[in-house]
Amino acid sequence: MVNGAASSSKYLDPSQALEHLASYNRKDGLSVGELLDSQTHGGLTYNDFLLLPGKIDFPASDVITETRITRNVTLKTPFISSPMDTVTEKEMAIHMALLGGIGVIHHNQTAEEQAEMVRAVKRHENGFINNPVVLSASHRVSDVLDVKQQLGFCGIPITDTGALGGKLLGIITSRDVQFCDRNDLISDAMTTDVVTAPAGTTLLEANEVLRKSKKGKLPIVDAEGRLVALLSRSDLLKTVNYPFASKVPESKQLYAAAAIGTRPADRDRLALLVEAGLDIVILDSSQGNSTYQIEMIKWVKQTYPKLEVIAGNVVTRAQAAELIAVGADGLRVGMGSGSICITQEVMAVGRPQATAVYAVAEFANKFGVPVIADGGISNIGHIVKALALGAGSVMMGGLLAGTTEAPGEYFWHDGKRVKSYRGMGSLEAMEQGKTAPTGSKGKAAAGAPKNALNPAASKPSAIVENAATSRYFSESSAVKVAQGVSGDVTDKGSIVHFLPYLHVGVQHSLQDIGVRSVTELRERVLSGDVRFEMRTASAQVEGGVHGLNSYTKRLFTST
């Protein structure tokens, strides 16, 4: 007993553990400023550090992932799909928005094709549809079928003028035309007994009328019976099934975002996109601090003052300052960090992504300009690290490529089901598009010196005009220097299951850190309360799967 008493006297009173903790001169780990001090640690990537855990006193489901992606646009989740031709077209953009993120439609296609994709996003889900497709009684069944083929729906109001504002005569649906001849008049097939709601009806009241009537469409009419708007049952169902959907507050339509270049022709492209309903434009360039982009931002803000402009890409405070000064509403951060990007290797220009995100976000957030961490995101941990370093959201390419909604067809490679995935700086992307010869019949200008460094002088040259060449300032280069590669990625299934996995993973990660929201994460990082730790190469090995002969890595299950 004496020895036991003597032994216990060597230790502090356990009930005083918290008080003793407060006596330490510094907390565990590093502050974000200490971690990202380039003079001490050099440039860091996401794999070079970890966040230290905090205290859990709430369920993961309580974590709020709402965040701003521009000065004026807030999303329920911090997820953005990249404007790459193997990542984001219509289907990806629609489903990203339905699930709380946003998809940026690529511009390696004609302006008309891109505008049609924007239009499809805007028409997919609405509150009150203020610009519905309308036909007249003199149209034919073939016109209805054409609308269904092009736009995917068939509940069309019929007015005496064939336009919004005309007197409502009826409505025509797929059931009405199911057994009709294509040449039959709509007046012979349409339904005239139509349930309507008066102008001034709130969205909540209109939804209730639609629910009780069990109809597919609810026309909104004024006192004279003229059509002023339309409400769709399918949109009501989407509201229930997709509670996080990214919608414009006023119209209840899905947010639509698209990328353009910074050349004169892109001004005409943007006009078509705005006409189609574009909400956010991304100025797509590998190096955003250029006179081309600065002038484009000025022009866009003057011509379309309500359009949100995301500029970039940048990796330094100096680059960011130039774009913020002329009105950028958001910034993309990243240069050479994507899985298919070789800019850092080939051009010797760029910056490790974690250091770049922190440096730009710390500066841009002072001006209320959100930052998008673009590139280097390959798992949930990377997403959380980017948010902790000050990013408002993350832009993903390779992580979303291979999903059902990504462009392209599946094929088999080495026994795995895959889809193609390529960088916009790859030669394959640069070679896609319109080829325009320069000079008379594509010949070199007379008198031009012929030598190995001027191949354009000794053989026909061509300007390949597409998103890839303009993004890397390579339109007029006779020799295309690749800054990306082409490959394939494994099948990840539908984005409908994959994005919720990312969302729940972020919630659990923030729970481990001890914060209840993305906003709180940023505040506690800046205050020094959330701490970080550097990882050695051995620590990175230890933190992954190791010591097994074989294993199966299943990331999630969905019911």
Question: Overall 3D geometry?
Answer: globular
Percent in strands: 15-25%
Distance between the termini: 59 Å
Helix content: 25-40%
Largest sheet strand order: 4-5-12-13-14-15-16-17
Q: What structural class results from the helix and strand content?
A: alpha/beta
Global Rg: 28 Å
Q: Runs with pLDDT <50, length 5+?
A: 434-464
- Mean pLDDT across every amino acid position: 84
Tell me the number of helical segments per DSSP (H or I, 4 or more residues long).
22
Largest sheet: 8 strands, parallel, barrel
Number of strands: 23
Gist?
The chain is an alpha/beta fold. The chain contains 22 helices and 23 strands. 33% of the residues lie in helices and 16% in strands.
Q: Could you outline the blueprint of secondary structure elements for this entry?
A:
Elements: H1 2-8, H2 17-21, H3 32-35, H4 38-41, E1 49-51, E2 67-68, E3 74-75, E4 79-81, H5 90-98, E5 102-105, H6 111-124, E6 135-136, H7 141-151, E7 156-159, E8 168-172, H8 174-177, E9 197-198, H9 203-213, E10 217-221, E11 227-232, H10 233-241, E12 257-260, H11 265-276, E13 280-283, H12 291-303, E14 308-314, H13 317-325, E15 330-333, H14 343-347, H15 353-364, E16 371-374, H16 380-388, E17 393-396, E18 411-413, E19 416-422, H17 427-430, E20 434-437, H18 455-458, E21 462-465, H19 467-471, E22 486-490, H20 495-513, H21 518-526, E23 532-534, H22 537-542
Helix pairs in contact: 5-6, 6-11, 13-15, 16-20
Describe the structure.
Helix content is 33%, strand content 16%. By secondary structure, the protein is an alpha/beta fold. The strands form seven sheets. An eight-stranded parallel β-barrel has the order 4-5-12-13-14-15-16-17, surrounded by seven helices. Strand 18 and strand 19 form a beta hairpin.
